Amino acid sequence: MRKILIVVCFFLGLAGLCISQGRSVYVIDFNDVVHGVSADFVIEGINKANAADAELIILKMQTPGGMVNSMERMIQAILASERPVVGFVTPSGAKAASAGFYLLMACDVAVMAPGTRTGAATPVMLTGGGDDENYKTLMEKVKGDSRAFLRTLVSGHRRNFDVPLEDTILRAVDAIDKSEAYTEQECVNYGLIDFTAQSLEDILTRLDGQRIRRFSLEGTEPRITAVTTRGAEIIDIEMDFRQQFLSYLSNPMLALLLGTVGVIGLYIEFSNPGLILPGAVGAISLVLASISFQILPVNWAGLLLIGIAIFLFVLEFKIASYGLLTIGGIVCLIVGGLMLFEGPIPELRLNIWQVAPFAIAFAAISLFLLQLILKAHMGKVATGTQGLVGESGVFKGGRVFVHGEIWGVINEEGLSEGDKVEVESVEGLSLRVKRV
């Protein structure tokens, strides 16, 4: 009996080991602005975890927010996930602001690390403003839609039944109406998140063997999913090279630089055919800039102003405006840069401290090139017949020796052999000279 018991325990342990090895927890590391590229990354990660029948999906978040349409796509993927999704704002000092707040509320389990914050979810529109009644009406519609969406997420993920649901919803809506932001402990007290955790291991320990209440509207049968995280394999999902590259291109300042370099490079190539390098650099830069413009929210009026600025800088080389065209180009470049991207958060737009130095540096380069052009035009001609005017020579044998060349003399009267002369003009194959 003892031997049989040992054998049974051995096989039970082996079976338990095989079962634990079959479990997996997928961790999606989302540390980016919410835009099309980052949304695709998160959605692909969730789909991959569902396809592998992961025990749990953990979305590690650190984001300033971003674009609404990308956020909504991510939330749809979270709510439609077959496996529970845990939103984890980490590390300490990080935030899930604006669109990140909606993402956190959409997760089946919401967790924050100590020293993190979330909220500040007021929608932002950069068109219109002031006392424009149409703009105010539009903003009220946008806010009303955001409130309804947030109320649905909060009520469908009721996290703390000790806190009245109305109070939790009120706190969540204040993040829209009053741009309120909350610390991790305030979120626990208001029922906005489930608990706080120091690390990923803390979350796995706390959720091991727990029954997670999934998104369920009031009055409907709640969906419950039991999870076992002990011994589960941790699989990290990070952006691949393509996604990292596209995310890097979503930098507004880089997009402006690529677009400007592209136009300048092609102009130089068309003005001086055969240089090859400026044309190649310009073409590649324009292609990369077009990719950036597809990711970022572009204002075409701002793009037109930047085009006008470049045209004015180029025109300065052709017309002597004494710097007026350059000044106009600087103004157009600054205004166009500020208008170019209409992102809802500062990370998706350009500010005056980014655009002004760029415009001034660009103008300085243009003025430097203009100075070289003017210097070349105003300088003395060194080649051809015009280059002979003002040159010195020697009168010998009825001829003038200049630059190692022998020229005839039109006005040789009064000249003596060996006299030094200066060329006044060139007339055919003869020179008009004067004695020095």
Would you spell out the secondary-structure blueprint of this structure?
Elements: H1 2-22, E1 24-30, H2 36-51, E2 56-61, H3 68-80, E3 85-89, E4 95-97, H4 99-106, E5 109-112, E6 117-119, H5 133-156, H6 165-177, E7 181-183, H7 184-189, E8 195-196, H8 200-207, E9 211-213, E10 224-226, E11 233-237, H9 241-249, H10 252-271, H11 277-295, H12 300-318, H13 324-340, H14 352-378, E12 392-396, E13 399-402, E14 405-409, E15 420-427, E16 430-435
Parallel strand pairs: 1-2, 1-11, 2-3, 3-5, 4-6, 5-8, 14-16
Antiparallel strand pairs: 6-7, 9-10, 12-13, 12-15, 13-14, 15-16
Kindly describe this structure.
The chain is of the alpha/beta class. The chain has 3 domains: 22-239, 2-enoyl-CoA Hydratase, Chain A, domain 1 (Alpha-Beta Complex); 244-378, no CATH class; 385-435, Beta Barrel (OB fold (Dihydrolipoamide Acetyltransferase, E2P)), CATH 2.40.50.140. Helices cover 50% and strands 17% of the residues. The chain has helices at 2-22, 36-51, 68-80, 99-106, 133-156, 165-177, 184-189, 200-207, 241-249, 252-271, 277-295, 300-318, 324-340, 352-378, and strands at residues 24-30, 56-61, 85-89, 95-97, 109-112, 117-119, 181-183, 195-196, 211-213, 224-226, 233-237, 392-396, 399-402, 405-409, 420-427, 430-435. It has a 6-stranded parallel sheet. A 5-stranded mixed beta barrel has the order 12-13-14-16-15. A 3-stranded mixed sheet has the order 4-6-7. Helix 3 links the parallel strand 2 and strand 3. The longest helix has 27 residues, at 352-378. It is elongated. Residues 14-21 have low confidence and may be disordered.
